[in-house]
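User: Hey, quick favor. My workstation is busy. Could you predict this chain's structure for me?
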Amino acid sequence: MLENKNLGTNLAFFGTAIVIPSSLIIKVQSYATLPIVSDLTFTLTLLSQSWLWKFSQTFFYLIASHTIFIFCKMDPLASLYSHLKAADPFFLLAGPNVIESEDHILRMAKHVKTIATKVGIPLVFKSSFDKANRTSSKSFRGPGMVEGLKILEKVKIAYDIPIVTDVHETSQCEAVGRVADIIQIPAFLCRQTDLLVAAAKTGKIVHIKKGQFCAPSVMANSAEKVRLAGNPNVMVCERGTMFGYNDLIVDPRNLEWMREANCPIVADITHSLQQPAGKKLDGGGVASGGLRELIPCIARTAVAVGVDGIFMEVHDDPLNAPVDGPTQWPLRHLEELLEELVAIARVSKGKQRFNIDLTPFPE
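Assistant: No problem, here it is.
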């Protein structure tokens, strides 16, 4: 027998103030198995007639005189992860490559969120505070971690959107985890165990880019490192594979084979079209080239195959972007491209696994 109790209250849980609405408090008068939050079902057992608190990571309950009161603690990151996994037809990780200024990033966040909301897909806003792997030491890197995280936090609060940003060193993970909802592991670092573990221990969702030098099977091992560190919230991303010197190619088979990682699959439709650095910049630096005109081609392929998420970098003035301008998609065309991708994804059955029947065809 289940009965809603009008017992709405405020409770402190592990130092965090949580408001428990009455709709989340359930009275159970017998043994039962109940779904409490998405993906979670557990069996309740009456242990004692005395008052006794029981705790876990996602719920806590009070046992009193053969009555169990359930208080659901909604973990916002588990909720975000479930929300992204269930996205129909896909979720979007998007924003400018690097934080150029506070005004620019706030303006970009406003426009990207407006477009994603209009198209009807979940958005996680992306930008980097430091491009630590630039080709030239003279090239623009960003504002740095301290200032960059302050700016990303302002974006998060101003527009109520989750944030994804990347880390390059284990020492950055704790600070980044206080702001970002998703911590991104760069492709060059996808096998770095200490970095994966440090990111995992923040409790934040971990997004791992596949190295350009890696087979898709490697990503299952990288994802497992995150899980073994105690964090089940992981996703992996295809961003192209080296095709000889100075070129990348996107193999659609990777998007299927990477499902062995048993987590959401993301396609990076912009970095996968990078080309060797060639453009000389003021100050002596150089910038990567790219094949922007092929972004729609790679994107159409990815959603037809049935990816869970699309990663793309977007800019309002890509010709003058200080980093990766040739592979950033013009903001003015973002809505148009997303609408097309949503239409393709809805027609395709890419997320459905085909059951191949090899029995002889009847005569």
